C-alpha cells in the first residue's frame, strides 16, 4: 500500500485513539489509553482548536485545559466517534470529517468535527493534529 493510501487509515486510527484518551483521562482510568505524553505529542506545535462555541484555543491552552480536566467525569462518561471520512488529501496532509457523540450525566451531546492532520513519523500514531473545528449538532430524540 502506498504512503498516500495509508494516510486516511493513520488519521482514522489517530481520531479513535485520541477520543479513547479523552475518556480514560476524564474518567481517571489508569489504562495505557490515558498516556498524557502521547496525547501531547499528537498535537503539532501550531495546533489550533475552534470549539463548538466559536472560541479559538492554541495548543498550550488545549493542553492546560486537558491537564486540569483529569478525573473530571464519572466512570459512566463515554464518547462515540462515527462517520469518519476523508474530505480532502494532498501530500502528507488530510482533512477528516467525523461526528463525536458524548454521553455525560444522562445527557447526550453531538458535534460535527473537521480535523486537519499531517504525517509525522515521530508522532505516536504517525500523524499530528494541526487544526480542529467543532460545531454543535442537534441530538435526535
Report on the structure:
It is a single chain. This protein has a single domain (3-137), classed as Nuclear Transport Factor 2, Chain: A. Helices cover 29% and strands 43% of the residues. It contains 3 helices and 6 strands, in the order ααββαββββ. The chain has helices at residues 3-27, 36-41, 59-68, and strands spanning 43-50, 56-58, 78-90, 93-104, 107-119, 127-137. The protein has a 6-stranded mixed β-sheet. The longest helix has 25 residues, at 3-27. It is globular. The model has no long low-confidence stretch (mean pLDDT 95).
Short description:
The protein is an alpha+beta fold and 141 residues long.
Secondary structure layout:
Layout: H1 3-27, H2 36-41, E1 43-50, E2 56-58, H3 59-68, E3 78-90, E4 93-104, E5 107-119, E6 127-137
Parallel strand pairs: 1-6
Antiparallel strand pairs: 1-2, 3-4, 4-5, 5-6
Q: Give the CATH architecture.
A: Roll
% residues in beta strands: 35-45%
What would CATH call the class?
Alpha Beta
**What is the overall pLDDT average?**
95
Rg from alpha-carbon coordinates: 15 Å
Number of separate strands? 6
CATH overall fold name: Nuclear Transport Factor 2, Chain: A
Main pleated sheet: 6 strands, mixed
List the helices and strands in order: HHEEHEEEE
**What order do the strands of the largest sheet run in, or round the barrel if closed?**
2-1-6-5-4-3
Distance between the termini: 42 Å
How many domain units? Answer: 1
- Please bin the fraction of helical residues: 25-40%
Globular, elongated, flat, extended or rod-shaped: what is the shape?
globular
Outline the low-pLDDT stretches: none
Q: Number of helical runs?
A: 3
Amino acid at each position: 500500500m502506498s504512503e498516500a493510501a495509508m494516510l486516511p487509515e493513520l488519521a482514522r486510527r489517530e481520531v479513535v485513539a485520541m477520543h479513547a484518551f479523552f475518556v480514560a483521562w476524564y474518567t481517571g482510568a489508569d489504562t495505557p489509553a490515558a498516556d498524557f505524553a502521547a496525547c501531547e505529542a499528537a498535537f503539532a506545535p501550531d495546533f489550533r482548536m475552534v470549539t463548538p462555541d466559536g472560541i479559538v484555543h492554541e495548543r498550550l491552552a488545549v493542553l492546560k485545559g486537558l491537564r486540569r480536566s483529569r478525573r473530571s467525569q464519572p466512570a459512566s462518561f463515554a464518547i462515540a466517534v462515527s462517520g469518519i471520512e476523508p474530505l480532502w488529501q494532498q501530500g502528507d496532509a488530510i482533512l477528516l470529517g467525523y461526528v463525536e457523540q458524548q454521553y455525560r450525566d444522562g445527557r447526550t451531546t453531538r458535534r460535527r468535527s473537521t480535523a486537519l492532520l499531517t504525517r509525522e513519523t515521530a508522532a505516536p500514531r504517525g500523524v499530528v493534529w494541526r487544526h480542529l473545528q467543532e460545531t454543535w449538532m442537534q441530538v435526535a430524540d
